[in-house]
Amino acid sequence: MKHVLTISKLTKHFRVHERTLIALQDIDLSVKEGEFITIIGPSGCGKSTLLRCIAGFETLTQGSVRVEGQEANRPGIDRMMVFQGLDQLFPWLTVLENVAFALRVTRTAGTKKKSRTLAESYINLVGLRGYEDFYPHQLSGGMKQRVAIARALSVQPKILLMDEPFGSLDTFTRKALQEELASIWQKTKVTVLFVTHNIEEAIIQGDRIIAMSSQPGRILTVIDNPISRPRTPDSPGFADIWDDLHRLLGVQKGSVGGSLRQQQRIVSYEEMETRRLVAT
């Protein structure tokens, strides 16, 4: 199976208040076509910045990102991103129009009729048939994320980047969408890189799990996940991977779902950058 994504010596610095902050340092990673990879680590370790670098939203300080051998230093429809926030849809467009918008601006579908047909097929794929004419304010949080996934997939990207897409959802909805995403991935075979703070989610979703350290963000290890799908905490081998990640990342015992919590609050580079932008 060929490598769809190759990251070499990726380093990203931010300049904050006359101070250089190393967000990512010497990231090396190769991803095969069709893989589902989860990325986990404490807040501020650069997980989201890594996705943004892959998406072409950030200028690299050093290193390279290549998609199928071609340098990817700007956004492109071969890499689509789904975010955590529930406000990523256009509120003045219906579900169908939100999905069709991506097809129209990227000129993926060709004709308006084909655009509608494709949009409807991806809406059906995420289980929202019958909601085509609904507006975002009429949808639940989970439904909004399904639309965002449909819109990202509609342009048939090589890589789907997901930045804690279920982080704002309740536990029940989160688990339902985990199962739905696994089903969608098996049908489309799109390559997925999925950021999470939750150890249970990382194991359930990922066939490889990347554990990161913080400040600067580095890859601590990559764990192969041999557990057959569908996965649950009761699956053979689940507890072993859980314990490995628990020890590696220093998760507090008793934390719900294995969510990462630090003993003391450290201001992340994302927060520092936000403060700088507000100040200016």
Q: Count of helical segments?
A: 8
The profile of the biggest β sheet is: 6 strands, mixed
Q: Based on the structure, what is the oligomeric state of the protein chains?
A: single chain
Overall pLDDT? 89
Q: Helix amount, in percent?
A: 25-40%
Overall geometry: globular
The neighbouring-strand order within the major sheet is 6-7-8-3-9-10
Q: Which structural class do the helices and strands define? A: alpha/beta
Mind telling me the C-alpha Rg?
19 Å
Portion in strands: 15-25%
Order of helices and strands: EEEHEEEHHHEHEHEEHH
How would you describe this structure to a colleague?
The protein is an alpha/beta fold and about 280 residues long. It has helices spanning about 45-55, 95-105, 110-125, 140-155, 170-190, 200-205, 240-250, 270-280, and strands at about 5-15, 20-30, 35-40, 60-65, 70, 80, 160-165, 190-195, 210-215, 220-225. A six-stranded mixed beta sheet has the order 6-7-8-3-9-10, with helices on both faces. It has a four-stranded antiparallel beta sheet with strand order 2-1-4-5, covered by helices on one side. Strand 9 and strand 10 form a beta hairpin. The longest helix has 18 residues, at about 170-190.
Defining key terms:
alpha/beta, 280 residues, disordered C terminus, 10 strands, 25% strand, single chain, 34% helix
